[in-house]
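Give me the fold.
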Amino acid sequence: MKMSRQFPLNALRVFEAVARHGSFTKAGEELGLTQTAVSYQVKLLEDTIDEQLFLRRPRKIALTDAGSRLAPKVSEAFETLREAVADMRNTADGTLTINSSSTFASQWLARHLGSFQVKNPGLAVRLEHSQDLIDFSRSEADLAIRSGRGNWPGLKVHFLMRNHFTPMLSPHLADSIGGVHSPLDLLKLRIIDAGDPWWMIWFNAAGHPDVSLQDQPRNRLGAQAIEAAAAIAGHGVAILRPEFYAEDVALGRLIQPFDLTCEDGSHYWLVYPEARRNSAKIRAFREFLREALPEFDKPII
């Protein structure tokens, strides 16, 4: 390996972007470089280490064995550098930036962050709401709360809680049809987000696999918390995680007419880049969740 030249940090940065995108063009768009400049930097790195890193095919590139070995190490190295800079930037104000879905943020985080800050008085919290999966390499977030199956390569993943669901509605809406006594009674009412696959999973488990929701309006409110607010207002039946709305049930704003709850394999997880696992602020939040959530990091059975 010829390492007598100046270490090609820029070339490594370009290589990491090309490997991540699987495209010279997309890497160039991210880095503000022409495709020619991207190709030059990759060739410079290949010449430096005496290894071919990509197989160049018509309209497609693929990592070689050498490229596959190098890519994750380079990605982790750049993530470590980004974390070091971020930690320096945040040292003065001590800010932990959390990205979360609006539902988890409003129904769980908002009710528990006070306890976290009592235990960590020198650490401020910045909360971002997003329904989409974020790219940590292009976001200011230190960590995220995600709903899914927990299979995100390159990220450290901790199980938080199961995500199960059941129909819920306003007691006044239920009274408008003389009460909800069987699953089919729900079809007499407006279904909030009838296109949500949770509905058919639940009706199937309730013994009604042939139910059709085609005549129901296909409203999309974008977040479970918004659907819950619509249900509380009496605008329809929502399918919700009941534990998030226990207070609304206690106050008589919502009812859960059936004990049956279902799952689709998608649960709540704490995630952050592997390279940030030793960050002090992430460690503090991780330990807080471990104390606050009995299921934290437990295997899913």
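The radius of gyration is 24 Å.
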